[in-house]
Amino acid sequence: MKLPSSFTDYTRALLGVEEYEKLAAALEGEQPVSIRLNEDKLPESSFSLFRSSFRHVPWSTAGYYLDKRLTFTFDPLFHAGCYYVQEASSMFVEQALRRYVGEGPVVMLDLCAAPGGKSTHARSVLPAGSLLVANEVIRNRSQILAENLTKWGHPDVVVTNNDPADFSALLSFFDVILTDVPCSGEGMFRKDPVAVEEWSPENVEICWQRQRRIIADIWDALKPGGILIYSTCTFNTKEDEENARWIQQEYGACLLYTSPSP
Known about the structure:
9 strands; alpha/beta; single chain; five-stranded parallel sheet; globular; 10 helices; four-stranded antiparallel sheet
């Protein structure tokens, strides 16, 4: 894989030579395949015969690594919503929800929800009686989101097709807001060669500013004491640590921490 030299220089300085070489080797390696079970549709008793050949994702109760990529479109269980094909790293949202959301029902907004991996996951771990609003600003992607949530089968879900600014009218409405914001996509390099071609320092600059605008648009919709989950699939500090500090300084947010254990 031919990585942009500016990405290589920045990331090597960020991680150090040894850790950067590990990252570069991982980007050249085979992409792991993982799925997350819909335990309401595929109970443990019906799946137990196959579990011994799968490796559990440590931070997700229903996540499993597969030995190889299957032809999922030929599997009726896939189309029935019995499992979702999802990157294992995306399943970490479960840790934040289980640790910081109480036992009582909540109202949650998944702001940038398509195609639905985190939305279906959140709906599986939220307390009974909770409502999930899954939003996608791009219309054709919102239709895919609605299809995946319909297949997942939980009734307490609303799918919307709105700009983040539209939610500013709902003052202090949501207990939890998940913002899986558009980013420069450095974490997609191994999966999507186009992500490598489209990466540039200029795009990083555009992304971190867009991410702040999104947070500014929806912040007032979060209840005082509510939980904002800020998520990207990129490595650089401008879109991650620096934006997290900006949220803390601009809005008086308190940073929360969790560890990768179920």
